[in-house]
């Protein structure tokens, strides 16, 4: 008689498997980016070796800055639907403030963005309203305020433009100063999330907010701080947009950046359920999303289908990154 032995994995083996799976997910966004660049290079061999990457970086930097703001919010397991509108508000604000405030205009503009985020966070936390509802309503508030500031017209940067122009005009190796600032801020965000108590609090709340409250985590302060930071990043994105375009409008380029910024964050491996992801991968995610319109034009895809691609990318990214252990009791 032969006895069949069933092998049972030890806790150590299971832990190694989880670490291996996490490492695979961490490198997956980079693999996707390299595959996309390879496909585009087949249709346009000079894309990577020529100015293609410079164009990609130009398109990606506003998405990266917005994505970094979304990163902290999504780490909490929440969402900020108003960030792109705050970027538009900042864009028209800095264009209007450059003449009267000069070098203090960018600082004041970032303050405006931070104040908008602070207001979102306060309402979400102290009135216990879902972030989806609050920031959805905030879109109308910040959009209307942008129209008032811009007087429902395009605002041209006519005075003291050099104060922000250097973000786009000063270049190293074909890449603007804004690109290097974005990369530096991504590294700072990664370091904060990895090495500080604040980062630990954010991840803990994203993984289990109720347990965090019972553990003494200052959840109210953390929530307000994260949304304030998101507003500041959105304002910086708006300043970069104005520097790139030389103009600002309440119905300008920033309005369409909400979906790309969220998609960039999720494509970077940040789970919508919270507590999982790296700010460094948001860099890769922003490049993937920026590559969709750039690559579509290179390959010859009709621009009308780009929003379909964005939507499919978001759905696929959510499927791959969502933490299903949090959903097992949800019917």
UniProtKB/TrEMBL annotation:
<feature type="transmembrane region" description="Helical">
    <location>
        <begin position="253"/>
        <end position="272"/>
    </location>
</feature>
<keyword id="KW-0472">Membrane</keyword>
<feature type="transmembrane region" description="Helical">
    <location>
        <begin position="55"/>
        <end position="74"/>
    </location>
</feature>
<protein>
    <submittedName>
        <fullName>Ribose transport system permease protein</fullName>
    </submittedName>
</protein>
<dbReference type="InterPro" id="IPR001851">
    <property type="entry name" value="ABC_transp_permease"/>
</dbReference>
<dbReference type="Pfam" id="PF02653">
    <property type="entry name" value="BPD_transp_2"/>
</dbReference>
<feature type="transmembrane region" description="Helical">
    <location>
        <begin position="131"/>
        <end position="150"/>
    </location>
</feature>
<feature type="transmembrane region" description="Helical">
    <location>
        <begin position="213"/>
        <end position="241"/>
    </location>
</feature>
<keyword id="KW-0812">Transmembrane</keyword>
<feature type="transmembrane region" description="Helical">
    <location>
        <begin position="24"/>
        <end position="43"/>
    </location>
</feature>
<feature type="transmembrane region" description="Helical">
    <location>
        <begin position="170"/>
        <end position="192"/>
    </location>
</feature>
<feature type="transmembrane region" description="Helical">
    <location>
        <begin position="81"/>
        <end position="98"/>
    </location>
</feature>
<dbReference type="GO" id="GO:0022857">
    <property type="term" value="F:transmembrane transporter activity"/>
</dbReference>
<keyword id="KW-1133">Transmembrane helix</keyword>
<dbReference type="GO" id="GO:0005886">
    <property type="term" value="C:plasma membrane"/>
</dbReference>
<feature type="transmembrane region" description="Helical">
    <location>
        <begin position="104"/>
        <end position="124"/>
    </location>
</feature>
<keyword id="KW-1003">Cell membrane</keyword>
<feature type="transmembrane region" description="Helical">
    <location>
        <begin position="305"/>
        <end position="322"/>
    </location>
</feature>
<feature type="transmembrane region" description="Helical">
    <location>
        <begin position="279"/>
        <end position="299"/>
    </location>
</feature>
